[in-house]
Amino acid sequence: MADLETDNPRILGRVANWSLAAGAVLVLLGLLSLAAPWAAATVIDAFCGVTLVAAGIAQVALAAGTFTRRGFWLTLLCGALSIMGGAAMLVLPKAGIEALVVFLGLILLLEAAAKLTAATTMRSELGREFPWGWLLFDGLVTGVLAGLLLTTKPAAAGILLGVFVGVNLLSSGLLFATTGLWLKREGAQLHG
Known about the structure:
The chain has helices at residues 2-6, 9-35, 37-65, 72-91, 93-126, 132-150, 157-191. The chain has one domain. The longest helix has 35 residues, at 157-191. It contains seven helices and no strands. By secondary structure, it is mainly α. α3 runs antiparallel to α4 (72-91), α4 (72-91) crosses α5 and α5 packs antiparallel against α6 (132-150).
C-alpha cells in the first residue's frame, strides 16, 4: 500500500482503466466460449495449428540460412515437426482438440499453482483490502478446471475445452475487473 502513495495518480488511473477494460474483454470472451463451446474449441485448435505451421516455416527458413552451422539438422527437424503438428491440427481438428485438452490441463495446473501462491503473497504485501480473495478464487477455479481436463474422456474433450476456457476467462475477467475497481478506489482515497 505504501508504494501506491508514491505513484503518479495518472499512472494508477491508467492501470485501473486497463484492468477494467481487460476484465470486460475477458468476461465477454468467456461468455462467448460458454455459449458455443465446440466453436470455441475449434477456433482454439485452428489458431494453434496456424501458429505451429507459421513457427515451423520460420524454423525451416532459419535452418536454410544456417546450413553450414551447428544445429542445422535439429532446427530443420523442429521446424518440420512443428509444420506437421500444425497441419495435423488443421486437418484433424478433433484429434488436435483432444491433444490441446491435455496440454491445456497441464498449463492450467501450473497457472493455478502460480495464482494460489500469488494470492497469499499479495495479501501479506498489499493488505487485506486488496481483492486477494478473487485471486485465490481464480486459482482454485483454475485448479479444478485443470483436474477435470486431465481426467476427461476424449469424446467430451471439445465441449469441455470450450466450456473450461470460457469459465477460466470469466474467472480471470472478474479478477481484472475487481482489481481495476480496487485501484480506482485506492487512487481516489490517496489522491482526492
